[in-house]
Amino acid sequence: MIWLFWSIIAACLLFACITDCRSREVYNVTWWAAGTAAGVLLLGERDRLDAGILLELVFFILLQLVLFTKMYGRADCYAFSVCAVAETAAGLSLTGYLLHMLLSFILLAFVQALRHNIGKGGNLRQPVPFLPYITLAFWALLWYSVTV
Length: 148
Known about the structure:
By secondary structure, the chain is mostly helical. The chain is 78% helix and 0% strand. The protein has six helices and no strands. The radius of gyration is 15 Å and the shape is globular.
């Protein structure tokens, strides 16, 4: 049954990437479905969760919604938050969430540098959807955490 909830998260992230690339808009229902699936996965792991891990998760989500919304947009913050809940269910903690963010930015910077889309101030010349990078980094991090 766990595969069903991971599949819902995967489908929602794919849908979010497609809508972000096409219209630069992601529907909130995407995050409700993905967040619910991630929450169910997290509830399934409640035996190994402690207050410290949950506090890290809440801190990260609040950080996304309060601070980073101004940096890169609400849908990207929702994506990082949903991914953090799923990452917690997979056994990662704050270090993993931050690594996910770092990996997302590294992928973005690498691809945009290859496309010569980075200006003198370090900003992108042409805005690009960030959700594909968030999604790719999420699955890469989960794959790495499972195989190591």
